[in-house]
């Protein structure tokens, strides 16, 4: 159950939903949910889609090992050097697209896919050539391969660092030109020099480790890096301006974003120590290249070693490329045999997994959830979606759902409990039954915002053992009327609550009434006068109609007062059967809900 629910986050079936049924309510329901028959149809849809094999378009060269993995699962179309027009034409026939850095996956590409494109795989780290906003809006997962080329990129950064310091490239060209200029190519030592690593992610931290081994003093700037991780490597995190002012060498390892575009410019070069040396194996756009030429000519920057450029390939007569104090390589950061094969395998596995409906730990436009966390949260993922579905089906027709409050009760510290996946599932559960939109992990937050649905989250820290990630989840919908008045809390919101017992989601509270039922199949909630024989009477009506009861629980305020009976059923009762239940004199209200 947990696996299928997680899979549904990334699949996009277009299935018709049936209205829920209720009696003793003045306003008709406008809300819908998936019946069991549709669940079966959804499974059939997935099986048929898998039998037909999805199509993966590989738009740039990929290692043979990765292609072999793809071909085991999908039809693979290797079409290289496509124009934007050609890509937009082909994409409507593809379920997944794999690119490197040379193909621009624009909004037009996603719009041209007609909703078929489910996954874009970036064979590498940077994703600035993919329009993430458009991907998210179209429910398309974007995954990358951030680990396979980490060491290769770090090694290339160190290679540029050392070769620049000793003028290796210039001396090599001089010797091959028949010259022997030993005095001209005197270099500088690395021992004791300060290296500023700008961006302390995977590659940056690996560069730092290697530079420490060369005897360099390493500092780093990264507003998102945890200080304890930097200390573990022996690196001090400093401010951006302090890094510029104190570094002898600056190595760039930040992504290209609006905030980092041309972050090295005339103003920042002016803050640097005279004679600084710069290495860039990240993204060309983080440096204002014209400003760098001016800094080189002024002697502010002594040398630069560049593997990436704003436009690739750069023009042959580029003043930057032709500068005698610049060492240039043609974007070779990931270009080792081992890294190329590793990237191909990593991106192929991520794309295939996503097409199967598995959550990718390398997703860049969805919560990145490690495999061990996914495994632990699996039953809570199911619980979250079903609580959302349950709560919204309790809303009376005509009431607009605009505000949902989610409470997570846990003995774990907030930093040890990532609720993004759970929030996405609650949004899925709330929105799908009342709209034609299919919500997945990628577009959950966007869809909620687009529909004016505000999700507020609250955490309650409990005493006790943090062995389980959550004690319970509570969902409240405010400013609405309920088709089941007993679901309203004392403060006037629809309130439902659930927990996981022995790996199974349980519905434990509705309004102020405590119940305890497994969240499987469908559910009948009845508010009744607490008197003998009620369980038998309702059970007999269902039994006579051949409706199997899977569980039954009664929560009451006090003996012989009001009680709420929760009945789980495996089969959908007919309208006549439900009417018979509603006609029992002691039953004051009831509602039939699909989980």
TrEMBL record:
The keyword Oxidoreductase applies. Keywords: Amino-acid biosynthesis, Chloroplast, NAD, Oxidoreductase, Plastid, Serine biosynthesis, Transit peptide. The keyword S-adenosyl-L-methionine does not apply. CDD domains: ACT_3PGDH-xct, PGDH_4. It catalyses: (2R)-3-phosphoglycerate + NAD(+) = 3-phosphooxypyruvate + NADH + H(+). Its EC number is 1.1.1.95. GO terms for molecular function: NAD binding; phosphoglycerate dehydrogenase activity. Pathway: Amino-acid biosynthesis; L-serine biosynthesis; L-serine from 3-phospho-D-glycerate: step 1/3. One of its GO terms (cellular component) is chloroplast stroma. It is an enzyme of class 1 (oxidoreductase). Residues 523-595 form the ACT domain. It is found in: Plastid, Chloroplast. Its main location: plastid. Coiled coil: none annotated. GO terms for biological process: L-serine biosynthetic process. Belongs to the D-isomer specific 2-hydroxyacid dehydrogenase family. This is D-3-phosphoglycerate dehydrogenase. The lineage of its organism: Eukaryota, Viridiplantae, Streptophyta, Embryophyta, Tracheophyta.
């Amino acid at each position: 159950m947990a696996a299928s629910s997680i899979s549904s986050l990334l699949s996009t079936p277009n299935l018709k939903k049936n209205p829920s049924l209720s009696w003793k309510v003045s306003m008709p329901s406008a809300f819908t949910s998936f019946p069991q028959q549709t669940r079966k149809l959804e499974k059939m849809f997935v099986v048929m889609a898998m039998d037909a094999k999805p199509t993966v378009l590989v738009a740039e060269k990929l290692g043979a090992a990765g292609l072999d993995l793809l071909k085991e699962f999908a039809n693979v179309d290797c079409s290289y050097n496509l124009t934007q027009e050609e890509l937009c034409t082909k994409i409507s026939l593809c379920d997944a697209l794999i690119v490197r850095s040379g193909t621009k996956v624009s909004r037009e590409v996603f719009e041209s896919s007609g909703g078929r494109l489910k996954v874009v795989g970036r064979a590498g780290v940077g994703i600035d050539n993919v329009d993430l906003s458009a991907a998210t809006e179209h429910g398309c997962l974007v995954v990358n391969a951030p680990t396979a080329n980490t060491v290769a990129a770090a090694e290339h950064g160190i290679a540029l660092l050392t070769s620049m310091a000793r003028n290796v490239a210039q001396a090599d060209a001089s010797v091959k030109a028949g010259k022997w200029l030993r005095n001209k190519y005197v270099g500088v030592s690395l021992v004791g020099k300060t290296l500023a690593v700008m961006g302390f992610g995977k590659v940056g931290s690996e560069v730092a480790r290697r530079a420490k081994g060369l005897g360099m003093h390493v500092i780093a700037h990264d507003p998102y890096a945890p200080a304890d991780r930097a200390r573990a490597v022996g690196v001090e995190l400093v401010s951006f301006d302090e890094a510029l002012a104190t570094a002898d060498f600056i190595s760039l390892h930040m992504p290209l974003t609006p905030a980092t575009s041309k972050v090295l410019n005339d103003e920042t070069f002016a803050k640097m120590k005279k004679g600084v040396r710069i290495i860039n194996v990240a993204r060309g756009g983080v440096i204002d290249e014209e400003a760098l030429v001016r800094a080189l000519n002024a002697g502010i920057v002594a040398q630069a070693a560049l593997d990436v450029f704003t436009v690739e390939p750069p023009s042959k007569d580029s003043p930057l490329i032709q500068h005698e104090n610049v060492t240039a390589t043609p974007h070779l950061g990931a270009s080792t045999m081992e890294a190329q094969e590793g990237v191909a395998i990593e991106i192929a596995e991520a794309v295939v997994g996503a097409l199967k409906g598995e959550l990718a730990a390398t997703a860049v436009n969805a919560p990145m959830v490690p495999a061990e966390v996914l495994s632990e949260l699996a039953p809570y993922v199911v619980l979250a979606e079903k609580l959302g579905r349950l709560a919204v089906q309790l809303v009376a027709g005509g009431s607009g759902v605009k505000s949902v409050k989610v409470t997570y009760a846990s003995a774990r510290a907030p930093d040890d409990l990532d609720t993004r996946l759970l929030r996405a599932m609650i949004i899925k559960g709330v929105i799908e039954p009342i709209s034609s939109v299919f919500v997945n992990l990628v577009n959950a937050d966007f869809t909620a915002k687009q529909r004016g649905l505000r999700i507020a989250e609250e955490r309650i820290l409990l005493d006790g053992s943090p062995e389980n990630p959550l004690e319970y989840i509570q969902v409240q919908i405010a400013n609405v009327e309920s088709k089941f008045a007993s679901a309203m809390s004392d403060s006037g919101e629809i309130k439902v609550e659930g927990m996981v017992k022995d790996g199974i989601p349980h519905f434990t509270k509705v309004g102020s009434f405590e119940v305890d039922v497994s969240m499987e199949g469908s559910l009948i909630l009845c508010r009744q006068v607490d008197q003998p024989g009620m369980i038998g009477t309702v059970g007999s009506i269902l039994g006579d109609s051949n409706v199997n009861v899977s569980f039954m629980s009664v929560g009451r305020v006090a003996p012989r007062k009001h009680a709420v009976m929760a009945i789980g059923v495996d089969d959908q009762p007919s309208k006549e059967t439900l009417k018979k239940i509603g006609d029992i004199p002691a039953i004051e209200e009831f509602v039939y809900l699909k989980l």
